[in-house]
Design goal:
Radius of gyration: 26 Å
Order of helices and strands: HHHHHHHH
Strand content: under 5%
Structural class: mainly alpha
Largest sheet: none
Distance between the termini: 88 Å
Length: about 150
Amino acid sequence: MSDNKRPKSNWAQIISAVLAVLGFGVVALQVSHLRTNARETAARQVYMSYSDARLRHPEMTEPDMAEIRADRLKWVLYKNFVSHMLFAYDEIFAVYDQEEWHRSFEQEVRYHMDYVCFGMTPEDDATYFVKMRAALKELRKSCPAKPATSAPR
C-alpha cells in the first residue's frame, strides 16, 4: 500500500461525519420552519379572533364616541376592543411585516385615533412589540392638539 492512499475505513469515517453534519443541518432547518409556522399560525388566530370581534361588535368598528363615553360599560368594551385590534396587528407585524398589513392597520385605526391620541398611556404602549410601538408613535404625529371631547380613562 502506498503512503498517499488512505485506508477505506478512514473514508467511511469522513463520509459518516459529513452526513451527520448534513443531517444536523436538515434538523435545524426543520425546527426553524416549525417555529415560523407556529408564529404565523398564532398571528392568524389572534387576527381571526379580532375579525370575529368586529363582526360581533360593529358599533365598535366605527364608533360613536359620544355614545360610548356616556356609558361606562361601553367605554370599557371599547378600550378592550381597541386593545384587541392593536394586539392582533402587533402579532401580524411580528410575522408579516408587509406594506399591505400596515395599510390595513392604518385604515382600521383611523376610526380610533381619538383614543390612540388621548386615551392610551405610555404604559399601554409598552405592552406591544417594537413595530407596533413605532406604528403608534408615527400615528400620533397626526394627533390634534386636544381631543374632540374629554375621554375617561
